[in-house]
Amino acid sequence: MRFKKKIIIGMICLAAAACGSTARLFPDEKNLPAYQKKVPRITYGQVKEGAVLYSKTCSGCHKLHDPKEYTIDGWNKNLTEMFPKAHLDDKQKQDLIRNYLFALSK
Q1: For a FRET experiment, which of 20, 66, 91, 105 has its CA 20 to 30 Å from that of 78?
Q2: Residue 60's CB: how many other CB atoms inside 10 A?
Q3: What is the C-alpha separation between 87 and 7, in angstroms, rounded?
Q4: What is the C-alpha to C-alpha distance for residues 102 and 106, in angstroms, rounded to an integer?
Q5: Helices (H), the chain
Q6: pTM, two decimal places
Q7: What is the pLDDT of residue 13?
Q8: Alpha-carbon distance 66 to 64, whole Å?
Q9: What is the C-alpha to C-alpha distance for residues 104 and 35, in angstroms, rounded to an integer?
Q10: For the range 15-22, what are the long-range contacts, defined as Cβ-Cβ under 8 Å and sequence gap of 24 or more?
Q11: Those residues with Cβ within 8 angstroms of residue 98's Cβ, 6 or more apart along the chain or in another chain
Q12: 26: which DSSP letter?
C-alpha cells in the first residue's frame, strides 16, 4: 500500500512539473503587440496554433527549447535543420511554428 502511494505521488509531481515547463512556452494574449513587432500581422490565434504545433512536433524527440533561448536568426538556422528531421513538409505548419518562435524569440 505504501509503495502505491509513493508511485501516485511521484506521478502527480511529474505531471505538475511537465505542465509547468510547457506553460512558459504558451503565448500570452497581452503580449500580442510585442509579437507583432517581430512578426507583423501575426494574430493571437496563429501564435497559439504555432505553440501547439511546436509542442506536438518537437517534443517527441527532445526537450522543448524556450522561444526566448534564441534570436530570430538562431531559430531560423535551427528550424532549417530540424524540419527535415521531423519530416515536417507542410509549409503552412512550418510557417506557424516559425512565426510562433520568431514572435517570442529574444
Answers
A1: 20
A2: 8
A3: 36
A4: 8
A5: 2-23, 32-38, 44-58, 72-85, 91-104
A6: 0.79
A7: 42
A8: 7
A9: 6
A10: 21/64, 22/55, 22/64
A11: 50, 75, 76, 79
A12: S
C-alpha of 2 from chain center: 37
User: What type of residue is 34?
Assistant: A
Which of 36, 41, 66 is closest to 54 using CA atoms? 66
- pLDDT for residue 72 is more than 50: yes
Contact 104, 68 (CB under 8 A): yes
pLDDT in tens, 21-53: 567 789 999 999 999 999 999 999 999 999 999
Question: Do 55 and 101 touch, CB atoms closer than 8 A?
Answer: no
Cell of 4: 502505491
Residue 10 has pLDDT above 70, yes or no: no
